[in-house]
């Protein structure tokens, strides 16, 4: 029985990833989850109390995997500038990944304070990855610089998701901003 519940929960999470990647948070509804998994809508409530709970669990499952990919890209880079570039590029390459869509789809208004804090802490772990490289580059406040750098990455993610420019164009601009600033 426990194995069956675990498999159902995994199927629901996988269906949620698909819904989020295809239509954003608006597409993530309990009727849609039920339809994709073949469960009755009332059965979905046995696994999750709300849509926010689904998003929270997706983030708990997917964010560490995403962060590990960013960390691996940075570990393979040689020198602080290359690490900054890897930090930016690896996050932007993950934009199309279904796991990333779940992380991006979080709407603070849908999550309770505890869930928002967990996600903020996980995001802080991502930002912490780049602090040392920024210190090596001479930033006197590398933690602040890391937070601002993540803002550049977040803005680039939004541009890619809008589809206004080619992802490679956005990535080049974000890397340029990260390494050379607004001047270029």
Descriptive notes:
The structure is a single chain. By secondary structure, this protein is mainly α. Helix content is 78%, strand content 0%. It has nine helices and no strands. Helix 5 (80-93) packs antiparallel against helix 9 and helix 7 crosses helix 8. The longest helix has 26 residues, at 51-76. The chain is elongated and about 55 Å long. The protein starts with a helix and ends with a helix.
Helix and strand topology:
Layout lengths: L1 H22 L6 H8 L3 H7 L3 H26 L3 H14 L4 H7 L8 H24 L5 H21 L4 H14 L4
Broad shape:
elongated
Oligomeric description of these chains: single chain
Major beta sheet summary: none
Q: How much helix is in the residues?
A: over 70%
* SSE arrangement, N to C: HHHHHHHHH
Strand content: under 5%
Number of strands: 0
Mean pLDDT across every amino acid position = 87
Compute the gyration radius: what is it?
A: 18 Å
Number of helices: 9
pLDDT < 50 stretches: none
Based on helices, strands and strand pairing, what is the structural class?
mainly alpha
Terminal residue distance: 59 Å
């Amino acid at each position: 029985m426990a194995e069956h519940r675990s498999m159902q929960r995994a199927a629901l999470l996988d269906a949620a990833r698909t819904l989020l990647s295809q239509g954003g948070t608006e597409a993530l509804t309990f009727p849609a989850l039920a339809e994709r998994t073949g469960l009755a809508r009332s059965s979905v409530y046995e696994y999750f109390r709300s849509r926010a709970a689904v998003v929270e669990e997706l983030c708990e499952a997917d964010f560490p995997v995403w962060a590990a990919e960013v960390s691996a890209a940075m570990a393979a880079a040689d020198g602080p500038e290359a690490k900054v570039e890897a930090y930016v590029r690896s996050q932007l390459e993950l934009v199309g990944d279904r796991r990333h869509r779940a992380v991006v789809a979080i709407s603070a208004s849908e999550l309770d304070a505890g869930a928002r804090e967990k996600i903020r802490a996980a995001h802080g772990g991502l930002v912490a990855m780049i602090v040392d490289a920024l210190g090596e580059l001479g930033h006197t406040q590398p933690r602040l610089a890391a937070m601002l750098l993540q803002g550049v990455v977040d803005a680039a993610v939004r541009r890619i998701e809008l589809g206004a420019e080619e992802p490679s164009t956005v990535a080049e601009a974000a890397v340029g901003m990260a390494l050379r600033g607004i001047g270029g």
